[in-house]
Amino acid sequence: MAAEGSLRPGGGAAQLALNMKLLGHHELAGFGGVGEGINMQKAKDGRRILWMAHESAPKNFTAVDVTDPRNPKMVVQTDLPHNDVRSNSLDVVGNIMAVAYQTKKWGLKPAGMDLFDISTPEKPKLISHFDASGPCSRGAHCVFFVDGEYVHLTSGSADFEPTNPKDDQFYRIIDVRNPSKPTEVGRWWYPGTRKGDSAPPPPRHPRFDGGYRPHNTNSYPQKPDRVYIGYIDGGVWILDISNKSKPKPVGHLQYSPPYNGFSHTVLPLVERGYLIVSDECVRDNGEDWPKPTWVVDARVESNLVPIATFPLPPAEIFTKRGGRYGSHNLHENQPGPCSFRSETLIFGTYFNGGVRAFDVSNPMQPKEVGYFVPATPKLAPKGSAQINDVWVDENRLVYAVDRFGGGLYTLETTF
Amino acid sequence: MTESPAATRDALAGLIPVSIVTGFLGAGKTTLVNRLLKRPEMNRVAVIVNELGEIGVDNELIEFSSEQMMLLNNGCLCCVLRGDLQETLRDLFIKRRNGEIIDYDRVVIETTGLADPAPVMQTLLTDSMLRDQYRLDCVVTLVDAVNAPGQLTQFSEPLKQVALADRLIITKTDLIEKQPLAALTERLREINPRAPLRNVTNGEIELAFLVDVGLRRTHADLEEVERWLGADEEHEHGHRHDESVQTFTLRFEQPMSWAGFTQCMDVLTALRGPDLLRVKGLVNVEGKSGPMVVQGVQHLFHPPLELDAWPGTDHSTRLVFITRGIPRQVVADLFSAIGAVGAR
Asked: Is B103 touching A (CB cutoff 8 A)?
């Protein structure tokens, strides 16, 4: 007799689903580890192309035709020049794609950002490279590019020497109106993180020193004078960027410690005045639990108030399923023809907790409305699925990707 | 994918459907459930039974976790009702979300022969956690062709089981002659004229008859709404209503105020709650673009839900009442007296 708690056909971690139905699965030719760059292009011939940046070398990015979500077809998969660089993040506007490059060590290349012309998805054509390498730079970790004009970049640079090696990236605004000549037009960093700052270096997180760097830097056309930054151990920042050459802080929320840092994505619900903030889980087996997704009242930007966290399944069960369990990426309400936008339905990824959807109509009581946790992928190094990022299209189809080998899952929502 | 989904969630879609299989002792509930579980479409079902023995799963059993829960070889879960159904349903849902059991996509509750299905239905309508996760899809009542005529006169439960049904199944029809079968059919029609009825032997029945009966999305189309409300009232004419159980439909052409409607229902439930066996329908509320869906069992009502739009061109309020001894006229008069509308 098996113990209670193993009522799954065949044993092992079976698929779990609520109000989400698996339509298709693609293992990306054996390179099924996807980072946190995922975006959908509507190609000129009408095909729907999902672009994904890989978590790590040897692959750079992969495009999959998801016009028929039940039968995804790989269109192109590209390689990185060497194994000490990763692409990790990308964004698409029309037929232009921005890809971030981050090296393992300071001083290596390519470090920065590429712009590609993807009008023929099979043949991405390099337009330009924005070099962000430097003696104290690993290049760029994350791009946010939605308006076709400016890339909001998390990056180091040749002229930036951090006070602590972990604080080697900052916020940079790159003008790409002429895509063949990307130019920095503004920057901002956490006071005290650059050598020569008048402010003292900020205190390190006592248990999990994740560093003071931006992670996601989100800015939306409907509110072009704001950027919303998850600043890892530096908490949440809202900057006024009406003058791009001089970003000015207007709101800050620091809740770590006592929480465990790594503020990752700040998704503004622009109409309603709330922020959805995810903290990335960066340790296996629940070591850095809890890593919540917060609802923050931002109706008064200068006084950000956390009012709720998303209800997640119990840590005592999921932290024992292998790998990481906790918040990570959100679907970010990107503009564009192939993106779902909602101020009440939020989709996020939770590593071995899969992809999950929440209803925040009542911001003080977010409610779980659906989830999909894939069965453990073949040869999963952590013994569980590790869902890393999510894209939701305008038909509310969900595209979730695994961090290691699971590849792409296409899902239908039924709520 | 012709329509783009809304940016908000559909309050009905995605809820786990619950079927209640009821019927008097020996009516063939277990046979039916066993047959249903063999269908490939029913391979992720959680079945709640009163006794393990009843479901007859000795050969089907592949894994036991406790005396209360087991996995069948088709992937379904079978769970024994211990005490409280409310607790069992909650427990199942929590175990499902934790990945401790299969992600079942339907629940089938097999009641005991002596059970009154009303409290089971009420549990689903009123428990705030359960109604957020589950929806009542269908009450299937099995009627034993051989013994039912006697049981319907001797006991009160079978009568109520028939009255509350969304679907009626007469079993063991191979064991009786045509004439008594016709008489039984007539008797069931008198008690519950709206529920579609089938004759079945050995639990052989097409699945479509039993599933997707309840409303499953707020943009339901006309066919879905009609399926849920049951046969149209025209079909009721010509039947002699059973003296104790009565089924009727009230129809109001004009929109009514929500306050007026709830006042009528409050009065009815306060005075005759126990006799208001089942109420379901669509209400045209002033100022709303879609109808309000109303359903209740005796004195308990599900919180009203608004459909996105009216299915079809008929925008009149339609309320189906299944009552014990409350005549149509009394309810119609009440609605008139309270002045919400004039009943036709």
From this structure: yes
